[in-house]
Amino acid sequence: MAAIDPMGAATPGPLPTTPGPLSAESAHPGIGRTKDVPTVARTRMDTFAAYVALTKPRIIELLLVTTIPAMLLAANGWPPLGTALGTLLGGTLAAGGANTMNSYLDRDIDAIMHRTGARPLATGALPARNALILGAVLSISAVIALLVLTNLLAAVLGALAILMYVVGYTMVLKRRTSQNIVWGGAAGCMPVLIGWAAVTGSLTWTPFVLFAVVFFWTPPHYWPLSMRYKADYAAANVPMLPVVADTTAVAQRIIRYVWAMVAASLLLIPVAGMGIVYSSMAVVLGGLFLWEAYALRGRVGTARLAPMRLFHGSITYLSLLFLAVGIDPFIG
């Protein structure tokens, strides 16, 4: 279960004190294809913290924000405790594994970009080989956990999510097309399908509508971050949309996706029979998100652009909307 590079999108990292030693001209990283940064000696606690950082815990938190409400809605209340815990364990392992593999594959551009220059593989805090092993172990463990503790469908979806993020997004799309986050971001939508399948053993229209909400949310969430760090992505030769298109076009594209996201969130009302709690929140939150998206477009060409306002607001939107999804079965 991965996400929206997600999955590195959730929280910008601190500025490094020195630039990383890897070249922006590096080919797509693979085993033996890029020169790794020399490993820096560390205390045990520093080393442990570095391994945890590889998994990008804050992104995992954001993914669980969508998984838990999806399970509550699927169960129309509390799901079986064992199923819920198994899903959360498998989902955490899947996201951690995929994020670690992403850290391994992107270690060359992470060392170039200021936003990511302090990540463990960019600074040499850990050997790249260890990150590769950790990512593989976590990913395999995730699929096994979902299979044993939930069901086959959830395990298959978990494996698919990992492949979508590691192979589809990181290896194929990210460095080749400005539509990378649009289609690659689909991996970050998988937790709602996994959570639903774990509880019910099947899929209906409802989880796919939830999937659509997260799918259309991802570009308006990530493109503002890309606008803020446009120079970073340009230096690393990553063709994020704000690098290859002018700011006005990006802002207009963001508005279109926000409208699609709001429409999907409202579609959930008739499809899932949502009550007053969710319906009210979907309308209010959707209106606020649209307001901020139009405000961003209005600030194009001025010193007040402030794309990070929309970035942080998008996280609040998704968290509160899915909180309403989780509450609605109890009082809706």
Describe what you observe in this structure:
- There is one protein chain.
- This protein has 15 helices and no strands.
- It has 332 residues and is an all-alpha fold.
- The chain has two domains: 44-200, UbiA prenyltransferase (Tetracycline Repressor, domain 2, Orthogonal Bundle); 204-332, UbiA prenyltransferase (Four Helix Bundle (Hemerythrin (Met), subunit A)), CATH 1.20.120.1780.
- Mean pLDDT is 88; it is low at 1-37.
Can you summarize the main beta sheet? Answer: none
Name the helicity range: over 70%
First and last CA, distance: 29 Å
Strand content: under 5%
Low-confidence stretches: 1-37
Q: What overall form do the CA principal axes indicate?
A: globular
What is the tally of helical segments?
15
Domain unit count: 2
Q: Topology as H/E string? A: HHHHHHHHHHHHHHH
CATH top-level class of the largest domain:
Mainly Alpha
CATH superfamily of the largest domain: UbiA prenyltransferase
Using only CA atoms, what is the Rg? 20 Å
Average pLDDT figure: 88
Q: CATH topology of the largest domain, which one?
A: Tetracycline Repressor, domain 2
